[in-house]
DNA sequence: CCCGTTTCTCTTGATATCAAGAGATATGCT
DNA sequence: AGCATATCTCTTGATATCAAGAGAAACGGG
């Protein structure tokens, strides 16, 4: 078994024999796998009429539970985009009929963004398709190895969990 | 030990009990870890006066070995950007004195992009710093576990290695 | 040898993002 | 109470990217 990174590591070893590039064996694979996943997710979402950024926002609302309603501020912190970007995203999602803006009764500066019935259907269908795809990608890997992999990745990820707010997918 | 994804999985389980979202345990961690890595790499490169995209291009040239020279076409396939983007990148790298364009003696349509001495110094320093950071990130993990992790990731990555051309970082 | 096709780089136009800031309301300290 | 500061959303201007295509040179079959 051989992948992109084996070639990468070989080339660096030849050109930079002074450096021990062994960390790339793990971390370069993480980055490259993530790039492939991004492309695949885009393809899956496209089949369900959603852009990745649309899924991100709708999934955040869906995951928050009834009444599927959050402020733009919370949404932008959860999805790690700027306020200008979130305004633009909500505009387009509202135009598409997937969310609706309501004034916030508790804060006259603010609005609340609520998932529409169609928005919920779309994000539910897209998530199901995503999980199906991801399951097929892991298909060959036995449960014990999946758990080992998840555990090892968690040990790398958890120290990076800063005072950051929320989640994404 | 607990990370972002544990919370994510919990929330989905509550809202979508019909779905088995177990694949997220692995693949969501891959994506989120990659996002953290991107941010950290950006910080490391900034200390060495490089943007991530600058490092991508310069590293590609550096890794190709002497005379550190490639066509724009090969570079754009290697870094997975469009030709317009690569033209723009080479323009800016040339203005910064990190690469130089030369006519290709073997093909009058083409040019060759060559790493300058300063370009090489910069990319070498940035790579050293990157590896140092990545080593610190893996710091706690014993070599045997690193290898297990690399092996598991390779088994996911290698089927995705399509008839794609080259490499990146 | 010639002409259609491919390959190569660069240009153009559209778009999503970010950084910075504006305007309105809420909050808290004295 | 009152005033300064913080918070919230949206606007503006700049930028990097992509998709599509133009122009020039190379290639290859008849």
From TrEMBL, chains A, B:
Look up the domain of life of the source: Bacteria
Q: Does the keyword RNA-binding apply?
A: no
Assigned keywords, A-Z = DNA-binding, Transcription, Transcription regulation
Q: Offer an example of a GO molecular function term for this protein.
A: DNA-binding transcription factor activity
Q: Which SMART domains match?
A: HTH_MARR
Recorded protein name is MarR family transcriptional regulator
> What Pfam families does the record point to?
MarR_2
- Residue ranges occupied by any HTH marR-type domain in the UniProt entry: 23-158
Question: Which InterPro entries does the record cross-reference, listed alphabetically?
Answer: HTH_MarR-typ (IPR000835), MarR/SlyA-like (IPR039422), Tscrpt_reg_MarR-type_CS (IPR023187), WH-like_DNA-bd_sf (IPR036388), WH_DNA-bd_sf (IPR036390)
User: One biological process GO term for this chain?
Assistant: response to stress
């Amino acid at each position: 078994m051989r992948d992109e990174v084996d070639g990468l590591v070989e080339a660096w070893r030849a050109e930079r024999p002074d450096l021990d590039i062994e960390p790339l064996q793990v971390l370069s694979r993480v980055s490259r796998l993530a790039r492939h996943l991004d492309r695949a997710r885009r393809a899956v979402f496209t089949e369900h009429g959603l852009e990745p950024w649309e899924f991100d926002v709708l999934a955040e609302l869906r995951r928050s539970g009834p009444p599927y309603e959050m402020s733009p501020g919370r949404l932008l912190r959860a999805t790690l985009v700027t306020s200008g970007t979130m305004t633009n995203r909500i505009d387009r999602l509202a135009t598409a009929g997937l969310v609706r803006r309501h004034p916030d009764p508790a804060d006259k500066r603010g609005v609340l963004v609520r998932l529409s019935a169609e928005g919920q259907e779309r994000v539910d269908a897209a998530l199901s398709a995503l999980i199906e795809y991801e399951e097929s990608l892991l298909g060959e890997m036995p449960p014990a190895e999946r758990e080992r992999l998840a555990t090892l990745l968690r040990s790398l990820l958890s120290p990076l969990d800063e005072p950051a707010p929320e989640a994404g997918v």
